[in-house]
Design brief:
Blueprint: H1 3-11, H2 36-45, H3 69-73, E1 102-103, H4 123-129, E2 133-140, E3 154-156, E4 166-167, H5 168-181, E5 187-193, H6 197-207, H7 225-231, E6 235-239, E7 250-252, E8 257-259, E9 283-287, E10 291-292, E11 294-295, H8 300-303, H9 308-320, E12 326-329, H10 337-351
Parallel strand pairs: 1-2, 1-12, 2-5, 5-6, 6-7, 8-9, 9-12
Antiparallel strand pairs: 2-3, 3-4, 10-11
Length: 358
């Protein structure tokens, strides 16, 4: 018996009451497996307040605001297993059978884009929070003012690049660093793109992200998350700019996905009616954010809350017969979009992919 397994057994003594082990995000250190390092981290954090000890936040596996033996013991069922996007069970599931919590205009933060912003926190903070899908707007812009768009003058902008912008390859590099250091994680980029496929590919090359991009032919089956992890191709990239010609990893989004409407002023406006893309496509983008000329940050704590978000996602699953792959929100670190995705993934596991009953 290994030391870590002995520690897990000993952790049972710390439980105040016997009961069910809670659902957990068991890969605490992000290395793609549940092992001794995860147990050691959880044990070291017992007794600490996750709200005031950032290094221990991941150890609060049941999200009850304290770290105790319940959190340590929750690692036991998955000890020794490979983990994909926080769960061993997701490794066996196809990419299109997984809910990926997604940030709308993920690059557009209060700090950088104060006029047109959709997120409080930058992409590294979103990744740390559990966001795995990123809507990005890519634009050309004559930054040096010489009248010519030169190589490298591609930016993440929202509506007006003259107001605020960020080099595209700089933003992509943040995703590459995360993939470098988290070998069990799968990410998605959904581009609203005003640049050419060649310009997109050049930015990917400069950022070092190209080796992670998954080649995919529309109409062919998606790999499982486990297969993506094994191959190293752990990034799906889709774009609304029909790419022809294009790298085999840059996929026209409306050949594989469909979406709900994104022009919602109030929560009462949310419906499950389809907008762009054929509903026969395999990926479902559930747009779940409010826009009144700009974003509506004051309502995000309610819009993004469980059960409101979860109930809408389940309703749209029932109405459309399609699993919501990308619950997409503004202010993604506010509210419960990561928890919503976890609950949807749990629903899928229970129902076998059929919509849950009322």
């Amino acid at each position: 018996m290994t030391r870590s397994l002995r520690l897990l057994i000993a952790a049972a003594a710390l439980l105040p009451l016997a009961g069910c082990v809670p659902a957990a995000m068991p890969d605490l250190d992000g290395d793609g497996r549940v092992g001794r390092s995860d147990v050691d981290l959880a044990l070291a954090c017992v007794g600490f307040d996750p709200a005031t000890t950032p290094a221990c936040t991941v150890a609060d596996t049941n999200h009850d605001g304290r770290i105790d033996g319940t959190d340590v013991l929750s690692l036991a069922p998955d000890y020794g297993k490979r983990v994909c996007n926080g769960s061993p069970s997701l490794c066996e599931r196809r990419y299109d059978q997984v809910a990926h919590p997604t940030a709308h205009n993920a690059f557009s933060t209060w700090e950088r884009f104060t006029l047109y912003f959709n997120q409080w926190d930058d992409m590294p903070a979103q990744l740390a929070h559990g966001i795995r899908g990123f809507m990005l707007d890519a634009w050309p812009y004559d930054a040096d003012g010489n009248g010519t768009i030169e190589p490298g003058e591609t930016f993440l902008c929202h509506a007006d690049c003259s107001w605020a912008r960020r080099p595209l390859d700089e933003g992509l590099a943040e995703l590459r660093v995360f993939l470098d250091t988290h070998p069990g994680e799968v990410l998605t980029i959904i581009f609203e793109s005003y640049i050419t496929p060649a310009e997109t590919a050049a930015a990917f090359d400069r950022s070092g992200l190209t080796p992670y991009a998954l080649p995919h032919a529309p109409g062919t089956p998606w790999p499982t998350l486990g297969e993506m992890v094994e191959s190293g191709r752990r990034l799906v990239v889709v774009t609304d700019n029909r790419p022809s010609p294009a790298p085999d990893w840059l996929v026209y989004v409306w050949s594989v996905a469909w979406e709900t409407h994104f022009t919602n002023l109030y929560r009462s406006d949310f419906t499950c009616a389809p907008n762009r893309g054929r509903t026969s496509n395999e990926l479902f983008i559930l747009n779940h954010f409010l826009t009144r000329n700009s974003s509506v940050p004051g309502e995000a704590p309610v819009t993004n809350a469980n059960p409101f978000l979860v109930e809408r996602a389940r309703q749209c699953w029932r109405e459309s017969g399609h699993f919501p792959n990308f619950p997409t929100v503004d202010f993604a670190t506010t509210g419960d979009v990561v928890e919503a995705a976890r609950l949807l993934n749990a629903d899928f596991g229970v129902t076998g992919g059929t919509p849950p009953p009322l």
